[in-house]
Amino acid sequence: MVVDDLDALQGKFEGIETVAFADLSTQMILVTNSNSNQRREALEMLCAEATVALGSADKPALGDTPSPAAFVATKNQLRIFLRAPGEPSDVLCCVCKPDVDVASFLSDAKPCLAKISSGT
Q1: What residues are paired with 28 via a beta bridge?
Q2: 67: how many CB neighbours lie within 10 A of its CB?
Q3: H-type helices in 1-120, by residue range?
Q4: Into how many domains does the chain fold?
Q5: Model pLDDT for residues 38-95, shown as the tens digit of each residue
Q6: Smaller CB count within 10 Å for the chain: N or C?
Q7: What is the domain range of residue 70?
Q8: Which helix (H) or strand (E) holds 73?
């Protein structure tokens, strides 16, 4: 199940508060990790931010091609948005503490997203 994959990813890294799987074509969060404390309104805003940061499959935010990732950092939080390589509307939206090991997280998050997106 998708929630199990998200829980496993979130559980590997201290400082990951929320991992959500979203569909940018509908601008909806489809599922989150089971212990996410984000309210529905916050999740909707997170998905909207992903749409702005990444752009849609047919309207990239910047340049001519859709970006595979985007990062939004504040003093207290890092938000990571990853686009599935095979399905440009599928994204992971991650809310993290600013000191998360981004490189390690990305090395696990990318295959997790690919698995979820492909339905395997």
Answers
A1: 23
A2: 16
A3: 2-12, 40-54, 102-118
A4: 1
A5: 899 999 999 999 988 898 666 666 666 778 999 999 999 999 999 998 898 999 999 9
A6: C
A7: 2-118
A8: strand 69-73
